[in-house]
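Why does residue order matter? Because the sequence determines the fold. Keep that principle in mind as you read this record.
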Amino acid sequence: MAFVTLRILHGTDRGRIFDNLPTPVTIGREEGNSIQLHDERISRYHLKLQEDNDKIVLTDLESTNGTKVNGEDIQVRILRDGDMISVGRSLLLVGSHSDIDRRIAEIAAKMAPPEEARARQMGDRLQRMAANQSDVIEDVGEVRSPLLPGGPPPLPSRMSPAQSAELSELLDYVQAILREATEGAVMRPGNEKIEIDFAHWQAVLDLQARLAELLRRIGDPA
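Structure:
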């Protein structure tokens, strides 16, 4: 069983701390939730946190106003210490002080020595927000964690051979569309903008629409 700590940074319930809650955890307006938030813009059962393969996974439960993680609209997302969850007018921080300090140390260890101080500064900023010492937050949906990963997320672990093959086919398809678009791109002399032809542009837009549909289906397999 995994445990998760959540701190309310903004909203009616600002200052509340939910320490080491056992998963699964549900958040919403109703009393039956693990965390009941007094926010009229939050659905009765808004989102769920559960453990899967030693990771904490957030799933939006078809809420009316949606869920954002680090400023991005999501349907399903793996959470990490230091992430910001925006629901309604409420902003939640994932992780305790020690959890976030541990993640800062992990990030700093991957950086070159001159950049380690930047990781510490990001952590200090996040802890000030958690202590309610930050500036007034006007739009919780735009708040992003200072500890966002600097690169792409890792590949899923513990995949079966069939799942690995399916993921490989999907990534090959995405790469093929983007390769065709970039190979046809042209930079005109004296122009800093890149031009691609209309057919390639439409292919990229179609890819974006297909990926959005896939993300939706992954978040709501039913």
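The chain has a mean pLDDT of 80.
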